[in-house]
């Protein structure tokens, strides 16, 4: 009777029979449990059309509904969930229910750290963005324009971080959902990089609208190209880990050209003081370190199985992304204050 009730509740949660193919490829490979006879019988009675499933799969399906799933080792994961073979244990099983995926945010497994690092980062940037937008207009030279410029940065950061925590949450749902959200996740990184360029170029080239427009157009074209590349199905596969790190590193490093331009025109001292290049350099080091650790899967490659839950490369990369975005925000805020101090004046000996 209890089983019948639970199964009915599961149907109410939106778990439908179209999940059957993904269950076959996923859950059946996990059939290590002997299956619970009583529940199997009850499920067969209340799930019309589910007879094609093996008793063992039905048993696992039941466990997912009830939130009674257990973490599983890497070897038994279906191929589409196999990403990092240095994380030996603590993986979520395939769970074709969004409710179960979202509930897993509060459980300990290989994705817990990845979810929370960007969920908290998302809340941080959402608050910072709202505070910036609510700042009195007297602190800006051209309030509307400057708020739009900062808004682009916050939009990029908030979209990147929310796509990321959502992807890590529903990654174990099914192959199709995982693939769709991974594309959003990668597109989010490109949006964050593009959004970061906007206020930096706006204030650094405040008195040179032409190079500012050229650099902005270039980063938009490169960013949109990265988003298009990220729609390629194979982009998300473990084989292309280095390609991914390379695409986003290349997009970020396109900032080297305007940096050189600014430094040559204004000199090293002005670039590092009023130009805030020290902060932007720190930001770049953080992103590059994060991308490097991500691509090389350090530290888990040296100690397989020791970083399954905490301090794996992906989590370090996530923390560095949030820290780098914060450093970037600090740098552009200083640039904004400097321009405000000059009252937006562009004289012959002013910066650019
Ligand atoms: Zn991630």
From TrEMBL:
UniProt-annotated binding residues for Zn(2+): 168, 314, 318
Organism ancestry: Eukaryota, Metazoa, Chordata, Craniata, Vertebrata
Gene Ontology biological-process entries: adiponectin-activated signaling pathway
Family: Belongs to the ADIPOR family.
UniProt cross-references to PANTHER family, sorted A to Z: ADIPONECTIN RECEPTOR PROTEIN 1, ADIPOR/PROGESTIN RECEPTOR-RELATED
Lipid bilayer topology: Multi-pass membrane protein
UniProt keyword terms in alphabetical order: Membrane, Metal-binding, Transmembrane, Transmembrane helix, Zinc
GO MF, any single term: metal ion binding
InterPro entries reported in the protein's UniProt record: AdipoR/HlyIII-related
Domain of life: Eukaryota
Organism per entry: Dromaius novaehollandiae (Emu)
Recorded GO CC terms: plasma membrane
Record's subcellular location: Membrane
Protein name from the UniProt record: Adiponectin receptor 1
A Pfam family hit: HlyIII
Keyword Cytoplasm annotated: no
Transmembrane segments: 42-65, 115-136, 148-172, 184-202, 214-233, 245-265, 277-296, 316-333
Major location (coarse): membrane
């Amino acid at each position: 009777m209890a089983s019948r009730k639970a199964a009915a509740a599961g149907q109410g949660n939106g778990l439908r029979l179209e999940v059957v193919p993904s269950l076959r490829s996923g859950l059946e490979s996990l059939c290590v449990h002997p299956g619970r006879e009583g529940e199997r019988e009850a499920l067969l009675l209340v799930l019309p059309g589910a007879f094609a499933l093996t008793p063992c799969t039905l048993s696992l399906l039941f466990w997912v509904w009830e939130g009674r799933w257990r973490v599983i080792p890497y070897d038994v994961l279906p191929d589409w969930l196999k990403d990092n073979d240095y994380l030996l244990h603590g993986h979520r099983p395939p769970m074709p229910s969004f409710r179960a995926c979202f509930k897993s945010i509060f459980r300990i497994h290989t994705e817990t750290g990845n979810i929370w690092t960007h969920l908290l980062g998302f809340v941080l940037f959402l608050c910072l963005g709202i505070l910036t937008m609510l700042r009195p207009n007297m602190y800006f030279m051209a309030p509307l324009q400057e708020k739009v410029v900062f808004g682009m940065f916050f939009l990029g950061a908030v979209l990147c971080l929310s796509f990321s925590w959502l992807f890590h949450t529903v990654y174990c749902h099914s192959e199709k959902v995982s693939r769709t959200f991974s594309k959003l996740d990668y597109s989010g990184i490109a949006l964050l990089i593009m959004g970061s360029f906007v206020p930096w170029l706006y204030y650094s080239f405040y008195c040179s609208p032409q190079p500012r427009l050229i650099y902005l157009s270039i980063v938009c074209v490169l960013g949109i190209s990265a988003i298009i590349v990220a729609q390629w199905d194979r982009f998300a596969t473990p084989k292309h880990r280095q390609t991914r790190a390379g695409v986003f590193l290349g997009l970020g490093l396109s900032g080297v050209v305007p940096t050189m331009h600014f430094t040559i025109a204004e000199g090293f001292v002005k670039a590092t003081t009023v130009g805030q290049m020290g902060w932007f350099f720190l930001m770049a080091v953080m992103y590059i370190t994060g991308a490097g650790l991500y691509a090389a899967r350090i530290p888990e490659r040296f100690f397989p199985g020791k970083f399954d839950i905490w301090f794996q490369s992906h989590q370090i990369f996530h923390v560095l992304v949030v820290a780098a975005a914060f450093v970037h925000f600090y740098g552009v805020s200083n640039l904004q204050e400097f321009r405000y101090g000059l009252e937006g004046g562009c004289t012959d000996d002013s910066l650019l």
